Amino acid sequence: MKYTYYGQSCFLLEADGKKFLFDPFITPNPLAKHIDITAIEADYILVSHGHGDHVADLVAIAKQTGALVIAMVEVAGWAEKQGVTNLHPMNFGRQKFDFGTVRMVWATHSSSLPDGSYGGNPAGFVLETAGKTIYFAGDTSLNYDMKLLADLYRLDYAILPIGGNYTMDVDDALLATKYINCDKVIGVHYDTFPQIEIDRKEALAKFERENKTLLLPGIGETITI
């Protein structure tokens, strides 16, 4: 499986010829100004919640690629009003697709859409595909519901927010690894704004001291997981 980071909480997973794009926010991000969204390919777009730093490029990329958009009911309804037609509205629960399964899981945050309308509940996802199980927490604080994931899954990787202020910080993400029983983490939702800037060296050292892996790929970088 390949992971390509596009900044903030936007990334692409590639597995078995399928491409999964998460939380498309690229063009407004000055750190991602070298990314050409017209070159991005996707078969599926998964959206954790309606905030602008997660949906800014959703409509453009959905129309460009024809990807199936998987999102909370209210976010899907907003996207439909913007002319997106290939949609799978969800709520908390598990659904089978041709590539495997998606479970929408609890996140403690807020959610509204760019026009100010109600965005439903924020969420995270557990994606099962190509023999891998990946947890993307979305925007969330540390919460006890994460412990359920250790009962339900054997996670290969967890993609966790680490910037603090709006979400978990590095220390909370470390504690989350114990809740979810997953020692391999890819950090997201950091450095985009002053409020969520991190000390990368310190973050990596904290994970290393706990014998855990924290990956922080550069924007535009692709790694194999």
UniProtKB/TrEMBL annotation:
The protein's UniProt keywords, in alphabetical order, are:
Hydrolase
* Keyword Nucleotide-binding in annotation: no
One protein family per Pfam:
Lactamase_B_3
Record flagged with keyword Nucleus: no
* A molecular-function term among this protein's GO annotations: hydrolase activity
Recorded protein name is UPF0173 metal-dependent hydrolase CLV32_3696
Q: Which InterPro entries does this one have?
A: Metallo-B-lactamas (IPR001279), RibonucZ/Hydroxyglut_hydro (IPR036866), UPF0173 (IPR022877), UPF0173_UPF0282_UlaG_hydrolase (IPR050114)
Matching HAMAP family: UPF0173
Report the sequence similarity comment from the record.
Answer: Belongs to the UPF0173 family.
Q: Which residue numbers delimit the Metallo-beta-lactamase domain?
A: 7-189
